[in-house]
Specification:
The chain is mainly β. It has strands at about 20-25, 30, 35-45, 50-55, 60-65, 70-80, 85-90, 95-100, 105-120.
């Protein structure tokens, strides 16, 4: 389910079983391995500045520049190194906040699935 209508009906999604769609990963972001990214947008605000969804990545090492994001890890494990900041060990049940512009390196140890809210 994807909606950009804030008045849309409330809904629930069982995150561990949700079917995800392939998402492109820029080859320049891959440091090692052959990670595959999938995801699903569940809701987007009418102005496109708020996005909620599910995202998954298979093992490997990738870099990224983050948006303003809150996410909760549903399954899997990763180490997220924030350039000039903390190194975060994340796994099931962990909530994580990344700041817009954070440059990160994700070392994904086990396929990681998260539910997220991004503010653009």
């Amino acid at each position: 389910m994807t909606t950009n209508d804030q008045a849309a009906a409330s809904f629930a999604v069982h995150i561990p079983d949700a079917e995800l769609e392939p998402e492109p990963l820029d080859p320049a972001q891959i440091i090692s391995g052959e990670p595959v990214v999938t995801g699903k947008v569940l809701w987007e605000s009418a102005d496109g500045k708020q996005v909620r969804g599910i995202w998954q990545i298979t093992p490997g090492v990738v870099t990224d520049t983050e948006a303003n994001e809150l996410f909760v890890v549903v399954s899997g494990r990763a180490t997220v190194a924030v350039e000039g900041g903390a190194t975060l060990e994340i796994g099931p049940g962990d909530a994580c906040v990344l700041r817009e512009g954070d440059r990160t390196t994700w070392t994904v140890h086990e396929t990681l699935r998260k539910a997220y809210h991004i503010s653009l």
